[in-house]
Amino acid sequence: MDLLYESTRGGETGVTASQAILKGLAADGGLYVPERIPKLDVSLAQLAGMSYQETAFAVMKQFLTDFTEEELKYCISHAYDEKFDTEEIAPLAKAGGMYFLELFHGKTIAFKDMALSILPYFMTTAAKKNHVKNEIVILTATSGDTGKAAMSGFADVPGTRIIVFYPKDGVSRVQELQMLTQKGENTAVVGIYGNFDDAQTGVKKIFNDHDFAKEIDAMGFQLSSANSINIGRLIPQVVYYVYAYAKLCANGEIKEGETVNVTVPTGNFGNILAAYFAKQMGLPIDRLICASNDNKVLYDFFETGVYDKNREFILTSSPSMDILVSSNLERLLYLSCGRDAEHTREMMDQLSAGGRYESTPEMREFMKDFAAGYADMSENAAEIKKMFEENGYLIDTHTGVAAAVCEKYRALTGDGKKMIVASTASPYKFSRSVMEAILGKQPEAGEFELIDKMHEMSGVPIPQAIEEIRDAKIRHDRRCRPEEMKETVKSTFSK
Predict the structure, then answer these.
(1) Number of domains in the chain
(2) CATH number at residue 417
(3) Among the four residues 221, 298, 353, 455, which has the most C-beta atoms within 10 Å?
């Protein structure tokens, strides 16, 4: 049966998967959601014997019903290949009584690779299916990792261009260098004088500017997104939760059908929403634990039912989570109010106008699968140090937030279920913060000297992605203010 998509704000229904991927954001400003969440049509026993690529097909075919088997298998085989440095693609590491799902073995050493390796193949396949003649311009905001992973995926892909906006002083130096040294004649990177929310809001404004869309259409271009607002980003993320559960079964760590919990460090809510979709597909997950850093807007929402972004924005050691407007939460809100598009739109209008909205008691009841916790920077650092000293396992600052929240959750609830923790980035991507946590003081060494010291101390191999930027040429140096973003986008069309 075909699965179609609809906007969370009611303006579009009956949209095919390929159309939703091409558009990225619905015309009414809403996000695309499937009209129903499909069920897995293979057993847990069958999944336990599957490779990552086979698992990806089993999950994705349920969501992308207008892709042929041949098209989907082509996308999967080209995305999940030797660009990942482990055969498993997403291996599990057991440490400290948790199962760390390592999602950083791709080309840019962050979990965004898991979805952004396949999105360019989805996009070009979708363009052919829908007879698109325009050049597709991928416009995206990043809090550090999406930008590099998206540019890496789309670099020199025929018929596409990509423009990435990032907060100039809101990412790690390694994250910044990965973006600024990106090759590809069709790539552009712009640092904005502001935070990630400024970048994300600016990108959404451009998508919602229908006069601008007509203007660039006349020039032979159309916009799409590589952010997790694009359903083509979210669906591949469902895969690794299914794969992780199946591998725990295959390795004898859990019994088939045994319920597990999942902890996810998140700012924009996409990665944990994917875990929720996996649960709705039939995966035996009990609690979904939403782990926040000092910018604990999601924690406060799940605790009180009130979403309020009117607070100090804190630059933390886990910068990819430094977000106060969690875009993907809109999808959960829509589902939790019974797919009431008008109510969802009202809440989003309240967020735009006053920076806050409140969920109903019925919505909160619907969202009871979720638990929430947060870890501040000192708790994060203590967890990184503890994990390394007691278990010999090196984790980055985002995984540190998740592990600390997991420990708090267990102490508070006594819940002893097996725990999958999403490990979202290589520690080498945040080497300064990781080394400061372990040493207990600010290291004085330069970035790459520090990386070498971390390798010497831990024995963990330095990823190729790090070696590539040691002496790489800076190729992008543009900057702008948030209000200049549209003009900056326009100027790239004359390249």
Answers:
(1) 1
(2) 3.40.50.1100
(3) 298
Closest to 58 in 3D by CA, of 46, 66, 70, 75? 46
348 part of a folded domain = yes
Number of H helices, E strands in the chain: 22, 15
Residue-by-residue DSSP string for 16-76: -HHHHHHHSS-TTS--EEESSPPPP-S-HHHHHT--HHHHHHHHHHHH-TTS-HHHHHHHH
3-class SS of residue 390: helix
* Catalytic positions: 112
pLDDT at 91 over 80: yes
CA–CA distances in Å: residue 108 to residues 113, 117, 244 = 7, 10, 21
Angstrom distances, CA of residue 84 to CA of 71, 90, 270, 384: 21, 9, 22, 25
pLDDT at 8 over 70: yes
pLDDT in tens, 417-441: 999 999 999 999 999 999 999 999 9
Residue 342 is assigned to a structural domain of this protein: yes
Within-domain flag for 143: no
Q: Where are the beta strands (DSSP E) in 78-159?
A: 92-95, 98-102, 135-141
- 443: tokens are 């290291």
Q: Which domain holds residue 378?
A: 92-109+232-462
318 by DSSP, 3-state: which? coil
Query: What distance in Å separates the CA atoms of residue 5 and residue 33, rounded to the nearest whole number?
Result: 5
Per-residue pLDDT for 319 more than 90?
Answer: yes
Q: Give CA separation, 219 vs 8, 106, 133, in Å.
A: 30, 35, 11
Q: Please state, in angstroms and rounded to a whole number, the distance separating the CA atoms of residues 482 and 490.
A: 14
187: tokens are 């790539």
- 16 located within any domain: no
